[in-house]
Amino acid sequence: MNDHWPATMSEHTKTDGLPDVMPLALSEPVVLDKSRPRSERMASDKIECNACPVLCQISPGKTGACDRYANASGVLVRVDPVVLLRRTLEQDDAALVPFAARSDDSAAQAQANPLVAQNEVFVTGIGSSTTYPDYKPAPFIVASQRDGVDMVTVVTEGIFSYCSFKVKIDTDRWLGPEQANVRCKGEVVGHVSTAEYGSQMLSLGGVHHLTGGSKKEGRITCEMMLALGNKEAVELTIDGGSQITIQSGKAPIVNGVEEQRMRVGCGSATIGIFAKQFFGQADEVVVVDDHITGVLTQHQAGRCLDMRPSGIQIRGRKSTPGRYFQVANPGTGWGGTDIADPLSIIEGWDADVAWPGLKLLMVSTTGEHAAWYVLDEQLTPQPAAMPAAMQSVVERIGENCEPSLTTVLFLGGAGGSLRAGVTDNPVQLTRRIKQAMVNVTCGGAPAYVWPGGGITVMVDVMRMPDHSFGTVPTPAIVAPIEFSMRLDDYRALGGHMDRVRRLEDVLAGGGYKLIDAIAPNPWPLQGAAGSAS
Ligand code: SF4
Description:
Blueprint: H1 7-11, E1 47-48, E2 57-58, E3 69-72, E4 75-78, E5 82-86, H2 103-112, H3 114-117, E6 121-123, E7 140-146, E8 149-160, E9 163-170, E10 181-184, E11 187-192, E12 199-205, H4 207-211, H5 215-229, E13 234-238, E14 243-246, E15 253-254, E16 257-258, H6 267-278, E17 284-288, E18 293-295, H7 300-304, E19 312-314, E20 317-318, E21 323-325, E22 346-349, E23 359-364, E24 370-375, E25 381-383, H8 388-399, E26 406-413, H9 426-434, E27 439-442, E28 445-446, E29 448-449, E30 456-460, E31 470-472, E32 476-486, H10 487-492, E33 501-502, H11 503-508, E34 512-516
The chain binds iron/sulfur cluster.
Iron/sulfur cluster (SF4) binds near residues 52, 54, 55, 66 and 472.
């Protein structure tokens, strides 16, 4: 490992007057910059924070506008501890290292902690602080080893003006028309996107709402995004649609009703899945769905089972055999339609084909709605008690529905100036990421990097530690981001080698918060360089 160290690293050359081990929290102030304050008239006991373009002038004992930095006795400090992930989940000593702990205590703890020796600790961007303007090296550039390979992780809290949240809401209930405005506290903060399979999608936040509208719109958008990212509940209204409450990892609440089930499939798929179980129990089955309503005897599944045609005539637009579009308007009733009476989608019966005594099941795509009918002599469906065997098939539909959840994905553009904190030649970072030589994580959670230009990352906020996100009043979202790679690759892409610090030196700085890595996440260094795991 040591063969690869830059000569300056072991010496911690103080080329810029900064301490060799950058302190991490209140107990160890972060000196961000020594530049001259922008305002000459600033009171002498105030200090100017230069961690973002707002340039707050902070009085002693106070925090800046984002509550992330404070003036502690004339020294600018980052209020929160940097969050470290510990790989071994079984150990039970994950605890907040007290802010008051001096570096000696933390160093002793680090040395006593075998995880440190095994490099089972990962420094995340949460609480790591931001560098501004961007040409400065990232706050932490941490060297470690992984299975004998020298690695480096560049860690920062990025300020994202270009970012949004993509929200997947598992429900058939109609939330609103596509492209409709989504509002929070009356302000437009996003829009309804395309409906997906069993889910309604929202696109929330984004640069246009953050910066392109009124000040209030930008502020409310930023607050809403912060809450969503930090796994808190958000109330929204959709123009021409529903009022919803959404929270990552929880069931959505639509018009005051908590959603229970995600549908088993569209109406056609439900027919296909359960056709054999319907067969012999009913003469006709209609699965009511806002998108594709299925009719068993006309559907290919019914034909394959050699079912007798029933003569049923369904409203809406026939697509292919046994599949109907637009049988009703969208809504919060049966199968995401606006109907409360399922018979309303039946136009009639072909008297030459249908017969008195025909047994009809009407059911929704979640099995939450179901009704049993028998045709009388006039071929009019009459409600009847559902046979137990058919009832158990309806229950089977419900059993196959997954719980309805809200999923929140953060989408951020890291292909801008943030890269200068990693390398003097930013395009090299972009290229190495595309070549899968650099693993990108957000708070240790795996980030999907979109193909094409730039570094557009997407991450499930449930896989990130709690309270990973912050804001600055520009307005913009603050999110952790880490770039992990082989040390050799970092050198080759023009990295800030003189700022690389050993993991043990970072730990010796103290003031960190050590938490267990989130179980389903791969260890962040596993994906780096592909072979270091
Ligand atoms: S908003 Fe926060 S980061 Fe920006 S200057 Fe003020 S205190 Fe510093």
